[in-house]
Design goal:
By secondary structure, the chain is an alpha/beta fold. The chain has one domain: TIM Barrel (Alpha-Beta Barrel). Helices cover about 45% and strands about 15% of the residues. The chain contains 12 helices and 12 strands. The strands form 3 sheets. The protein has an 8-stranded parallel beta barrel. Strand 3, helix 4 and strand 4 form a beta-alpha-beta unit. Helix 3 packs parallel to helix 4, helix 4 crosses helix 6 and helix 11 packs across helix 12. The longest helix has 21 residues. The N and C termini lie close together (about 10 Å).
């Protein structure tokens, strides 16, 4: 089966294996359990080794992008540092790093992103996270302005400063939240195309921000949808709404979606494996919140045989999805399986 539309080919991404976005992995649970203890002499962090091995396999298997989600209050390795390490392991993966405006100065992120872009040969991108974890933000010296639409004003200014620093030298900006006077970034991104901005939002104010500044939007959908058909209908409505908002400001925004993928010899076998993955492992990080996020993604219809999942991904692409950010149990074997059974066949001419 091939994806036969006049649009660009469907892109395939994944989450970097870090504790707070990983389910069903005994190896990751073990890494979390030992994270607050010193390592043996010469030992590398076990979660680092998992990420390294899986991302090398994903890069070779045809994945296009990896998202380094950020969690400070937890056992996750710091996202920018992990992405920097991955720039040396990989050759084609776009390195998408999560950034919280309430925790970072945009001038600093502009330089960090440019550094990663030059280290990786132009593969850096930013996932702008307006935030939800109030306790984490406060303990690490920031805030998320939850329940306040001003956070979208700040996020938009954050992106304006990023792009200004990448484009102009010196750069000055005066906004509601950032005051930059004559800042100089003596590096330029690896090519004239600036690193892309990805983000997610559900509120009307946030969606207008996405339409004005984002290159990519992680589509929102009705998490109470009971079936894949209901979920697809919800996504169709969301895509139409975002495209209309973007047209009003003379822009286009590409659409990403993050289904959970489980492949099996039959639909029943895949569904049984999906249910097993939701069983907490000893040491799992905040598994209730994790399952609440993963559960809706498992209703995307991407749990089944390879042929069934390929057909479902083709439907999403035809609907207007440009990138699927796949969630799956992060192992070398699964990365290779997805490459062989999904990515390869869907790209075959």
């Amino acid at each position: 089966m091939t994806i036969s539309t006049d649009r660009a080919p469907l892109q395939f991404g994944m989450f970097a294996p870090v504790p707070h976005v990983t389910v069903g992995s005994a190896a990751m649970a073990k890494a979390v359990a030992g994270a607050d203890m010193p390592l043996a002499a010469g030992q590398l962090d076990p979660a680092f080794v998992i990420a390294r091995d899986v991302l090398i396999a994903a890069d070779r298997s045809g994945f296009d992008l990896v998202l380094f989600a950020e969690r400070h209050h937890g056992a996750d390795l710091e996202a920018f540092m992990l992405a920097g390490a991955a720039s040396g392991w990989t050759e084609r993966l776009k390195l998408l790093v999560a950034v919280h405006p309430g925790l970072w100065a945009p001038q600093l992120i502009a330089k960090m992103t440019t550094t990663l872009d030059r280290m990786s040969g132009g593969r850096a991108a930013i996932n702008l996270v307006t935030g939800w974890n109030v306790a984490e933000a406060r303990m690490y010296g920031g805030d998320v302005m939850l329940e306040d639409d001003e956070r979208y004003v700040r996020a938009e200014e954050f992106v304006q400063v990023l792009r200004g620093m990448w484009r102009e030298r010196p750069f000055s900006f005066r906004g509601r939240y950032y005051d930059v006077e004559g800042a100089e970034l003596l590096l330029r991104p690896a090519n004239p195309r600036m690193p892309e901005i990805y983000t997610a939002s559900r509120s009307s104010t946030g969606l207008d921000m996405v339409a004005r500044i984002a290159d990519w939007w992680f589509v929102s959908f009705d998490k109470s949808a009971k079936t894949a058909d209901e979920l697809r209908d919800s996504i169709k409505r969301s895509i139409a709404d975002m495209k209309a908002r973007a047209r009003r400001v003379d822009r286009d925004v590409k659409i990403a979606f993050n289904p959970f993928v489980v492949l099996g010899s039959s639909r029943e076998a895949a569904e049984a494996e999906a249910q097993r993955l939701l069983i907490p492992q000893s040491g799992d990080f905040d598994v209730r919140k994790l399952v609440s996020r993963v559960g809706p993604s498992m209703r995307a219809g991407c749990v089944g045989t390879p042929a069934q999942v390929r057909a479902q991904l083709e439907r999403y692409h035809t609907m207007g999805i440009d990138l699927v950010l796949l969630q799956y149990q992060p192992t070398v074997e699964n990365a290779e399986l997805i490459g062989a059974e999904l990515i390869g066949p869907l790209r075959t001419n």
